[in-house]
Every structure is written in C-alpha cells, then in structure tokens.
Amino acid sequence: MTVRVGILGATGYTALELARILLRHSGAQITALTTRQDDRPHVSAIHPQLTGRLDLHLENLSLDELAERCDCIFGCLPHAASAAVVPGLLERGLKVVDLSADYRLRDVAVYEKWYGETHPDPSRLPNSVYGLPELFRDSIKGANLIANPGCYPTSATLALAPLLKAGMIQSTDILVDSKSGVSGAGRTPKMGTLYPECNESFSAYGVGTHRHTPEIEQNLEQASGQKCSVIFTPHLVPMDRGILSTCYAKPTRPITTAEAIATLREFYADEPFVQVIDGLPATKSVSYTNYCHLTARVVNDRVIVIAVIDNLIKGASGAAVQNFNLMYDFAETTALAD
Ligand SMILES: NC(=O)C1=CN([C@@H]2O[C@H](COP(=O)(O)OP(=O)(O)OC[C@H]3O[C@@H](n4cnc5c(N)ncnc54)[C@H](OP(=O)(O)O)[C@@H]3O)[C@@H](O)[C@H]2O)C=CC1
Ligand SMILES: CC(=O)N[C@@H](CCC(=O)OP(=O)(O)O)C(=O)O
C-alpha cells in the first residue's frame, strides 16, 4: 500500500523533517506541499537539503485540490490556522496528523485561557486523540485525526507518567524545568530567536504562563487517573535542536534511585523509541533521531527524572510518522529506526 501524503506549512522546520523521514518510508509518497505564497517555489529553493531528492513545487492549494492528490495530511501550521482547515480536510475523507496544538487540549475553556484565542473547531476537542504512542497507542490506531504532542510535553510526560502510574510520586507537587534549542520556535522569524538575541545567551521565558503547562497536566492526569499540578519553566538555549527536561517530584514513600530506574525500565521495556539509561542523558545522543533517553535519581526528598529528545523529531515530525504508521498499520518503526 502507498499512502499519498500532503504537508501543510511546507516552508517550515517540522515540514522539512517530515519530508526527510517520509522520503525513506516505503509506504508513503509525498504528493503535495503547501505554502501561502502564490509563486510555486520548487522545494529545493526552500529546503536545499532536499535538492535532487524530491521534485515538487510548494503550492497554495485548495482543500479540494488536496483531497484529489492526497490520502493523509500532515498539518505543520501554527495553532488556530490549523483548526481553520482541519474540519474541511476531514469532511473530504482525508486523515490528518496535526502537529499544531489545536486538538491537544480536550477542554475548550482551557485552550482559550492558555492560547488567548477562540477555538475555530471546538466540537472536536472532547474526543480528540492525543498522539503519544507510549501511553495512548490503542486509540491512535483507529483515528482519523491525531493531535500530535507538543515538544516539551513529550519529554515531561514520558519522564513522569511511569512513576505517577506506579503511585511512587505525588501528583500535585511537580516541577518541570526544560531547555530547548532555537528550532523549537519554528522558522518564522521572531525577535527572541534572531541570532544576536539568542546566541551566547540563555534565558527563561513563559514562566507560569507557558501553554504547555495544561498539556502536561492533562497527559499526566489521563495516564495516572489523578489530579495533577505542574509548574513548568521553559528556557531557550543557543543550540539548533534538542530538549532536556529535568523533572522534580516528591516520592509518596521512601524510594531509591535503583527502584525509580527499574520502574522506568519496566514501563518502557517494549517501547522501540524510549531508552532508560544509567548515565545522565544529553541532547546530542538523540539528535536527528526519534529516541527519548531517560534516567532518574533520588536526591534528599525528591525524585529527579531527566529526559532528552530532539524537538523536531520525537518532539514533532518523528512522532507524527510514528502515529501515521499506527493509523495505517505499518510497522511502528518504519522510516524511524536509524
Ligand atoms: N518547531 C518545533 O520544534 C515544534 C513545532 N510544533 C508545532 O508544529 C507546527 C509547525 O511548526 P514549525 O514547522 O516549527 O513552524 P514554522 O514557523 O517553521 O513553519 C510554519 C509554516 O506555516 C505557515 N504559516 C505561518 N502562519 C500561517 C498562517 N497564519 N496560516 C497558514 N499558514 C501559516 C508558514 O508557511 P508559509 O509562510 O510558506 O505559508 C510557515 O512556514 C506549529 O504549530 C508548531 O507549534 C510542534 C512541536 C515541535
Ligand atoms: C523554543 C520554543 O520557542 N519552543 C516553542 C514550543 C514548540 C512547540 O511544541 O509548540 P506547539 O505546542 O505550539 O506545537 C515555544 O515555547 O513556544
């Protein structure tokens, strides 16, 4: 079977990573790339990395044109812009993996509070399927629309869910301290990500206000069945890619580092893309891969879990293809295990 796929927002960073991965996927063919520009640039002019590998132009395509050319759409648009087009794609029989945040939060009031915008398609939120296979694999398999996780929530959720599910940590006193490379902010220029602003600098942002806070809490609540409360502090690090999240929680009983690591290891024993390691993780070890590396330490009265991912792969486009593989019944690791 060959699935014809289209990528919306194809000038961006997540789209480039998707194209790279899908070009080595035996069951997928890229048949459409979109942009709002009307001059039909060749993909090699936008992404020189794809020169000689993909002979397509980026086009300002209508929903009907996308439906003619594609079976499945990867949406790489900003939030709100994405939910403005997803309903029309689904109505035309397409499957969608949405990399934006639009379908991640199930409560529209929570979305509107944290995103400060009216949701364009609120009726789909309560039943949306969150695409984190390690926790929600069964619901992904039959879905037509996947809400692909945020990059920071992927790292924090994979770090904390196993210990919460095992009842080893308290659910209402969790700190997530994360650092991200600059590609996490996308290719669309923003003041804070200009080279002179962020090079040789290291800064916190969104303290107490970052929209990934409710996403992390929702994931942990769904995984553990307990009310969860998280303080999440993101930081921008002057590197291209990678996220390192250091998560602090209070144990519910005295535990050791060895017990915490053993619990993580047991939880992820059959997972192809989560590796529990004894040493301390580094972003470089997972760069350009769909892997998450994790470990834990118990220090005084806290459990510390440290996770690393590549924000553009396991935090975005690799996870999107992992979800695509589940939706279409391809082996889950197709095009991702390298
Ligand atoms: N970067 C990351 O690490 C991660 C990103 N995400 C999410 O994935 C999505 C894509 O991210 P990323 O690739 O980094 O973003 P980029 O900024 O790199 O690219 C987004 C593309 O969307 C198009 N676009 C921008 N604004 C609009 C609009 N209002 N309406 C329609 N199209 C628009 C632009 O293309 P053009 O101008 O050519 O039309 C742009 O190139 C976002 O929702 C992001 O939040 C999720 C996880 C991680
Ligand atoms: C470094 C940086 O700026 N990172 C982005 C997160 C990227 C992401 O996952 O965003 P979505 O939830 O919108 O998809 C941010 O903090 O806004």
Describe this structure in words.
Pathway: Amino-acid biosynthesis; L-arginine biosynthesis; N(2)-acetyl-L-ornithine from L-glutamate: step 3/4. Belongs to the NAGSA dehydrogenase family. Type 1 subfamily. It is an enzyme of class 1 (oxidoreductase). The chain has 338 residues and is α/β, with parallel strands linked by helices. It folds into two domains: 3-149 and 315-327, NAD(P)-binding Rossmann-like Domain (Rossmann fold); 151-311, Dihydrodipicolinate Reductase, domain 2 (2-Layer Sandwich), CATH 3.30.360. It is built from eleven helices and 14 strands. The longest helix has 15 residues, at 151-165. The model has no long low-confidence stretch (mean pLDDT 97). N-acetyl-L-glutamyl 5-phosphate binds at residues 79, 100-101, 150-151, 180, 184-185, 234, 236.
Share of residues in helices: 25-40%
Q: What small molecules does this complex bind? A: NADPH dihydro-nicotinamide-adenine-dinucleotide phosphate, N-acetyl-L-glutamyl 5-phosphate
* Content of β-strand: 15-25%
CATH topology assignment of the largest domain: Dihydrodipicolinate Reductase, domain 2
Output the helix-strand order: EHEHEHEHEHEHEHEHEHEEHEEEH
How confident is the prediction overall: mean pLDDT? 97
What CATH first level of the largest domain would be assigned?
Alpha Beta
Rough outline: globular
Uncertain stretches of 5 or more adjacent residues:
none
- So how many helices? 11
- Radius of gyration over C-alpha positions, nearest whole angstrom: 19 Å
